Amino acid sequence: MMHRLLLLLLLVSFSSPAPRFSDKDVCLLDNNNLRQRLKQLQDLLYLYDLQLKDILENTYHRTKSGLFSGNRSMQHEILLPTTSGNLIVYDQDCSAVYNRKNTKSGYYRIRPRADREPFLVYCEMSDGGGWTVIQRRSNGRENFNRKWDEYKLGFGRFQGKNDEYWLGNDHIYDLLARGESSLKIELMDWHGERRYAVYENFQLANEQDNYRLWFGTYSGNAGDALSAGSNFEDQWSASHRGMQFTTFDKDHDRFLAGNCASENKGGWWFNRCHAANLNGRYYRRGRYKGSHDDGVVWSTWHGMWYSLKYSAMKIRAPFFIDSESGDGENSQGS
Question: What class is the 94-316 domain?
Fold first, then answer.
């Protein structure tokens, strides 16, 4: 009898119809899907509003986004970008900015590497155009006696054309990693006289090699201070070619008795110690005295005990050919 009862229960369970959703259940499910879809569209609209605001309010950015093209059609499946994504296309350097007919000197956002966030730089469009300025000293308002991480990420003000800053060793490395670059150094003394030095094949290693410095042939009228001039003894102890970057909290120089960055008040590619240091202490009036030659120094022009009024370091691809003359503005301080 028990066996027959169990068999009957099994037959009933197999023959029972599958559960069905009521119209109310179906309506609730559709409503939930529509709510999720609406939330996606609201998030996307908010993201587009932010990017449109960035384009309209920031004069440094003149790229027209393809998002707002009249020919663009909305796809059926909208995939929201990640929070680190950016739908605005940035130029890789100031040469690319110039080649898009943006020939006015000023601050622009560039992005040398697609896998990293864009950052702000000053693009100098005079002097042939397309120069990315990586360092500037002009008024002594910015403290250049900084830690390793600050030199790595960059510091200073990025507003006026004569604001002082260091672009950041990581940013400089990313700019130089794209190919061969020329470095131009512009200098001015306290009498308003200007000089310059150009180095071909300017290179920087990554942080694992402590941003080691390499450069090629020199030309200009300021003298080859990065190579410590023409004296062999000076070159052995003060040339900056092949030197690693040093700050007061991370010592990579060849000075065994101390730290060149601590003595000379700024991060730089010190040997033991230097023939040039554009990140030194900013002395007004030029000539200075002290326990160390720690000024803004370019020794092959004014010697070690003269601190310059202005310096700027800027880079550009050597094969860049300007198609226009630029705005003719000079970024040097007055």
Answer: alpha beta
